[in-house]
């Protein structure tokens, strides 16, 4: 999350210098204006990256927010409609975002999901059917989003610092069948980051009917192989024997592109498609691949804590 904010802050600074962007404008009730980039919007506050630095403004002090692009305004509207259960309006809002930026990953993810959900719900009146489905989703929990998530998905969530973590997974529940585990950190819901959000807000984000898609972080401690071979680097990668797998550098980061059966990664539970984010508590986002490989090789024969990001889809219970 800090990296995300730092990048956007740098882009805003460069944009101001070049005169290519004027940023968003937060209009306060006292008449003053704060110009910058709106990084996050929460129930009670807005985080803005300004020329002077990052600033948090209470919503009670804000009259309105003017975005520098239609795309950002539409995206925020689509998110709000989705959380409130207005799925038809949310679908059309995401559609408009994609008409501006067809490659927008969050908009594409939710648009495709809503399209499938709404098409499966078509009767004589699509809005009436969606309302009935939403009524079934929210029923039986007294309006408490945390109870809804536990009832529908079989998972309880809490906080650890500024992060949302899984505190309980009910046996034989949708969450358990998806592979979610107690202690997992929920990094994002439907592509939207959860840092600095309350557990109630995250629970509302998870309350979509049918399915919910999460990005979770989990720590593994594989016992790396201590064996070496004269064929290392010929028949397998220079580090492949050490981890029992292969890594590739993708746009998402360092991805596990292959796992050898009964190798160190496989035995620990690391899968193909997982993204490595930390090694022994050190963020590897900007670590050169050569340095990463050297770090793995230096830990031969040892247990090495590795944090991975993993995509998980939970299918809610049928009502």
Describe the structure using short key phrases:
SH3 type barrels, 11 helices, disordered N terminus, 36% helix, single chain, 319 residues, ten-stranded antiparallel β-sheet, five-stranded antiparallel β-sheet, alpha+beta
Second-tier CATH architecture of the largest domain: Roll
| Helix coverage percent | 25-40%
DSSP strand count? 15
The 3D shape can be described as globular
Strand-residue proportion: 25-35%
CATH homology superfamily of the largest domain: PDZ domain
Euclidean distance between termini CA atoms: 36 Å
Largest sheet features: 10 strands, antiparallel
Structural class: alpha+beta
- Rg, rounded, reads 22 Å
- CATH overall fold name of the largest domain: Pdz3 Domain
Describe this structure in words.
By secondary structure, this protein is α+β, with helices and mostly antiparallel strands. The protein folds into 4 domains: 2-68, SH3 type barrels; 72-132, no CATH class; 139-219, Pdz3 Domain; 222-303, Pdz3 Domain (Roll). The chain is 36% helix and 29% strand. The chain has helices at residues 2-18, 70-83, 87-100, 105-120, 126-138, 145-153, 174-178, 199-205, 240-243, 264-268, 289-298; strands spanning 24-28, 33-41, 45-50, 53-58, 62-66, 155-160, 163-169, 185-189, 192-193, 211-220, 245-250, 253-259, 275-279, 282-283, 306-315. The strands form 2 sheets. Strands 6, 7, 8, 9, 10, 11, 12, 13, 14 and 15 form a 10-stranded antiparallel sheet that branches. Strands 4-3-2-1-5 form a 5-stranded antiparallel sheet. Helix 2 (70-83) packs antiparallel against helix 3 (87-100). The two termini are 36 Å apart.
